[in-house]
Every structure is written in C-alpha cells, then in structure tokens.
Amino acid sequence: MTIEPTREPESLTEAELRARILDLVGEYADRFHAPAPFEPGAHPVPVSGKVYGAAEMRALADASLDFWLTTGRFNDSFEARLARIIGVKKAFTANSGSSANLLAVTALTSHLLGERALKPGDEVITCATGFPTTVNPILQNRLTPVFLDVDIPTYNMDTSLLEDAITPRTRAVVLAHTLGNPFDLDRVMEVARRHNLLVVEDCCDALGATWKGRPVGGFGDVSTLSFYPAHHITTGEGGAALTADTRLARAIESLRDWGRDCWCAPGRDDTCKKRFGWQLGDLPFGYDHKYTYSHVGYNLKMTDMQAAVGVAQLDRLDDFIAIRRANFSRLSTELADLQDVLVLPQATPGADPSWFGFPLTVADDAPFTRDALAIHLNERKIATRLLFGGNLLRQPFMRGQDHRVVGTLDRSDRVMRQTLWIGVYPGIGPAALDYVIDTLRGFCHR
Fold first, then answer.
1. Rounded distance between C-alpha atoms, residue 338 and residue 343, angstroms
2. pLDDT for res 139
3. Catalytic residue positions?
4. Which of 24, 170, 396, 417 has the most CB atoms less than 10 A away?
C-alpha cells in the first residue's frame, strides 16, 4: 500500500499512516543499508554475517509499531513456519540457540516423560569436538557426558565406537550437525532405537540440511536451531526448540515460560476453561493455574520484534541455502589441487548439507601451520574461525567435570591444532570468493 505524500499525516487513518512509515523504512533500507561492491584487499571477507534488506527492516518496524514487546502475532507465525519446514508438530522460539539447547536437554529430565526421564548421573553420548553449549546443558542438568572422537573430514562424531560407548547408565545422545553437515542419522537413530535412547539434534548450524531427502531436525526426539547473526537466518539473538512429541512439547513450553503449568499465551487467560479448577502439588484446590509451576523453569522467550525479522528471513531461506551450497561447491572445485597440504571437507554419505562454513585441516606434513595460514588470511582481511572449542576436554570449563571418554581423542586434538574454517554465507559474492581462492592458492603454492 502506497500513500500519496501530499496528504497531511493527521488526515491519514492508522493503516494509512502505518503504510507510509513502512514505505519510508523500506526506502531508508534501500538507500543506507545496501551492501557496497566488494574491493579485494580493502573490504573484509567475514566468515558469517547477517544478510537483510528492506523486507526485514519493514517487518521490524511493523512489529515495533504494535509495541507488543513480548511474543505475539509474528512469533506465532514464525513458530508455525519453522515447525512446517522441519516437519514436526511444534516449534518453540527462545532467546538463543544455546537456550534452545538448554530447553531441549532439560526437557528430557521432565517428570512428564515418566520412566524415560533422565536423572542425575545418567550418561549422555556426545562429540568431543564442537561448540560448548551443545555439551553445557548435559553438565547443567547433572548428567554425565560421554565423549567420542570426531571424524575428519566430515567433522561429525565418529559413530564407529557408538555401540561400545553404551552402558546401563546411557540414556541419551546429544549431537550437533557440524557446520551444517548432518551426522550419520541412520546409524545414530538405529542404535538409539535398540537401546531406548533419547536423541537431541543440535541443528543450530544446519537449517535446511537434509538426510536422504528429509530435513534434519525431525529425526531425534528434540532438535534445536539458532538465529544468531552468524547463522542461516537471523533474528539478532534467538533460537528454537522443536519436537513431534506432545509430552516434550509441554515440557519445553513450561521450561521456557517460567516453569509454569499454564499454557496460556502472554496476555491471555483461561485457555483451559478451568483456570480456578485445578488441584496440583500441595496447593489448595482452585489455586490460579497461571501461577502454578510444574518445572524449575526460566524466562527464555523471544520478542515479537525479533520474530518479525525471522518471518521475513524465512522468505529468503531457500536462496540463502542455495548460495551457501554454491559457494561451498566452488571452493571445493577450486581448491581440489591443494589436497597435498589441506584436507578438504566432505559431506557425510547420505547427507545434503546446508553448509555453515568451509573447514580446512592443514596436513600433517604441510610446510606451514594452521596458525601461519590463519595469520596470512587475517592480514589480507579474510576472516577465519577455529572449529569452535576444538577438543572440549582441553577447555578450562571442563576441569573437574564428571565425564567419560570412549577410545582416544586424537582427531579432536588434531582439529584443535590444525583446523580452521572460512565463510560460505550469502554475503560472500563471486568477487569476494575469487579473492579468497586466489589468496589461499597463492599461500599454499609459494
């Protein structure tokens, strides 16, 4: 809707004035937020970043005009679309992907699961290489992480020791699809079914990845997403926990929303039609259900302004994924002749990754180190990142933590010392990618 600028604002209806504001926001975005043409050596090449435009800024302004500062109409739409994309019943947004992981693992301890609920001391299998907040919720719930080594060049957990890792205390598997490359879901889910294990898929880096044609995130009992600016879509800060299990959905929602037993949306009352007709815990009959708490919970909700940006970003998701895959493919082709000094990444057989980055491991006998390569790229304004926490058992936060290791962690140590990754996100255009390729080839050939 476009409003004639000649009319005075006071003569406009609310809808007309809102439309004028949003038109101006779109014009502002086009003029002052458009990306500049890339100049090699002058402009940086980030590993990741937000890609946005007029649609996202208009959506953000639209939500701000509502001044509904908690979750609302945009969040309802965002959650419903996320659930459809992943192929599950319910999606619950949160204030970060790390919070989503906390919700996912904590939900596995809920009394709503009955005998399947995890208890302190139960073992949870995970990968020794990755991001700390995949593992932290295991520790925060007083569960025992069991670490297996990483596989190179997929950078996912080596599942060959999965069966050997299981003991009578093993109750769950919590794994991330590293850098958008799905782990071996056939193997993990087959072992989980035989041993009655719960599975959490950390898809924070993997929105849009598929396993044998089916979106990741719908295989395990719970999955998670992150919408931090580095990720496939962004809401600024933000994340989501998703599930097809109605008991886990109830637990996640309660844990996210203060631990309350009530499921009314913010600003609404008496959805259950018996707000003052419950008898729960040791409370008196009729105690207000809105103030009855069945879990030790948090407040981890997303704002509607964040969700509005997410809705607009979802409209671009397919294009974002296609560009990531194209950039990854180009790097793989152009760097193929450097495999004597660099180990190039490979997709897990059966997977179609939605690549988050392009990992490179410096060969053992290469005439340079990972750090020398990182410094060279950094000097030329090409950003790099390490593979998150490397071997997490070497991190300070793991000192004194109860855990178990199955096999060796030699490859996790190798990743810690010899691996970095570069970007493939949609903000890296052909000119920037040419510059990255030329710089890498020049360094390795000199």
1. 8
2. 98
3. 231
4. 170
